[in-house]
Amino acid sequence: MSATPAVRPAAGATAAAPVTGWRRQFQRRGQVRRLVTYLLLIPISFIWIYPLLWMISAAFKTEGEIFSGLGLIPAKLQWHNFSHAWTQAHIGEYFFNTVIVAAAGVAIVVFTTSTMGYVLGTKSFIGKKVIIGLLAALVFLPQGYTIIPVFDLITFLHLDGSLLGIILAESGSAHIIMILLFTGYFRQMPRELEESAVLDGASFPRIFWQIMLPLAKPVIATTIILQFIASWNDFLVPLVLTLSRPELRTLAVGVYSFQGDNFTSWTDMSAASTISLLPVIVVFLFLQRYFIEGMAGAVKQ
After folding, report:
1. What is d(CA 97, CA 34) in angstroms, rounded to the nearest whole number?
2. For 10, 90, 120, 153, which has the most beta carbons within 10 A of its beta carbon?
3. Which DSSP string corresponds to 160-184?
4. How far apart are CA 154 and CA 173, in angstroms?
């Protein structure tokens, strides 16, 4: 009786390594660990986002349902809360005021911070490290400490009680984070790009606008998101600069006006808050990929 010949693997093929017992046990432990992690994170995440979900659900409820319990599902969707907040509570006017302030502020801040970041990131001059150190120190300066000089300056320019005054106050603040992001991003770019452009006869503005700035799209998107959220949600500056003209209020100040001394319209406040939240979510969803790339690229050395 002849022995069965051994089957050899074909040339160039590699035999699959058998899955040993310890490897199966290791894989099983990893699956159990992930399952336990998910079981812990899901309730924690729900607790974290519950206030947001409650605010959105309260926008569709009646005043009685809001105080009847902590449930999220209304008995009947009250769509008139949004129409009432938009028209009778003047949220529509506040919304367009906020769009103008946020859009103009984003344009100004992107221009100023990108130019400053480009110079600090690519040029060498005396006192550069001192300037960067002072900028980093100003990050910890609260906004409340600067509101009085900002108000005095806007009043001196006769821009108080105007949207232009709010725009300049929002865009003229110390946007240190954006400057440092542009500085770190431009610093890591190859110097050969500028050198080759100089050899081709390109001027300094042309190098910045046509070569360097288009390459900084991730940081531009990051700056747009940060400044848009800051301008959209800012409360103190619009409150101070619109005391004499309530029709120029932004959404943050307008939503606060629902709270009175004796009565608070929680349904209208929730509907207005939901309306003010939607543009921020839309902007972030469109630019989130560039936002992550910008944050990662700016800190990379």
Report:
1. 47
2. 120
3. TTSHHHHHHHHHTS--HHHHHHHHH
4. 12
Cα distance from N-terminal residue to C-terminal residue, the chain: 72
φ and ψ at residue 15, rounded to 5 degrees: -75, 135
Q: 217 is written with which tokens?
A: 């799209």
**Number of residues that this document lists for the chain:** 301
Name which of 237, 260, 257 is nearest 247 in CA terms. Answer: 257
33 strand-pairing partners:
none
**What percentage of the chain carries pLDDT values higher than 90?**
7
Residue 283 in tokens: 């902007």
Do residues 100 and 114 touch, judged by C-beta distance below 8 A?
no
Q: Long-range contacts: 157-161, Cβ < 8 Å, 24+? A: 160/241, 160/244, 161/241, 161/242, 161/244, 161/245, 161/248
Cα–Cα distance measured from residue 226 to residue 294, given in angstroms and rounded to the nearest whole number:
12
Q: Cα separation of 21 and 130, whole Å?
A: 61
Segment 26-72, tens digit of pLDDT: 677 777 788 888 888 888 988 888 888 888 888 888 878 888 877 78
| pLDDT reported for residue 101 | 93
Select the CATH number that applies to the domain covering 96-299 from these four: 3.40.50.620, 3.40.630.30, 3.40.50.300, 1.10.3720.10.
Answer: 1.10.3720.10
Per-residue pLDDT tens over the stretch 220-258: 888 888 889 888 988 888 888 888 888 888 888 888 777
Assign 132 to helix, strand or coil.
Answer: helix
Provide the residue ranges of all domains of the chain, joining segments of one domain with +. Answer: 96-299
DSSP summary character for residue 37: H
Task: For the chain, give the mean pLDDT.
Answer: 80
Return the ∠ at Cα 230 (arms to 235 and 282), rounded to 5°. 115
Instruction: Please name every residue paired with 37 in a beta bridge, in sequence order, or none if there are none.
Output: none
Q: Measured between alpha carbons, how far is 281 from 220 in angstroms, rounded to an integer?
A: 18
